[in-house]
Amino acid sequence: MHIRTARWADKDRVAALIADALQPSPLAAWLAPDSAKRRQVLADVVGIWVEHAMFFGDIHLTDDLTAAAVGFHRYRPIPPPANYRTRLTDAAGGHADRFDLLDALLAEAQPTEPHYHLAFLAVRPDAQRAGRGAALLAHHRSRLDRIGLPSWTTVFAGGEHLLARHGYTPRPAITLPGGPALHPMECNAHRSSGMPINPSRLVDNRWQNFHV
Hints:
single chain, alpha+beta, Aminopeptidase, 40% helix
């Protein structure tokens, strides 16, 4: 399958497919307990971060728009998404405090050294179990190896095996109050080039780590 870099015109579709993949998960139920509003809340909040990745990270997706990987290069501080507090409140409504708590817990667990933050790896439910997630991870790993940058991410219980096949090792779990456990994982890069890392190309971010 062909994997390409997302364009600006793809951002709404990327947010929608991540929301579709995330919606059945225990994390989604914890973030947005109102099932009638859950799908829209997820799409709107994820959309903020997909847009932000267009400026401060990268997005890769399959040509059929059924799977996507969204991430940020964490090296130096970057601004939050434009008007983030207002946009999060508008998107999440009464659930905004859940997203704030998730932000804080992830920030505590995230490494402090330069790394790539693989924020979302999602496959649309009707396209799962066909190798799309594995293909995106292999593509992701090859890019990181070229610049020698380690990666950090978080998965749901049961998702560790796929990440482990691509060189990730587990870190201590994060347990949400009254919610599911999330499992951080790290991957050290294997330099495939003698070219040095250019710090001006690496930026910093925080937040979501959903693999669905």
